[in-house]
Predict the 3D structure of the following.
Amino acid sequence: MLLRILRRRGLDVSPTTEARLLATTDTALLERWADRALDAASIEAVFAEP
């Protein structure tokens, strides 16, 4: 679902980023990224460390 959100928002998902997302099993981390993906201005903002 996160990949879908990123793509629908027009954010460029590189193959490396896609592989990272698909390999991630930490649900809390995926939820944090998904929250950021809803209004992030860039793909870098989604994955930025706080």
Summary: Residues 2-47 form one domain. Residues 27-37 form the longest helix (11 residues). The chain has four helices and no strands. The chain has one domain: 2-47.
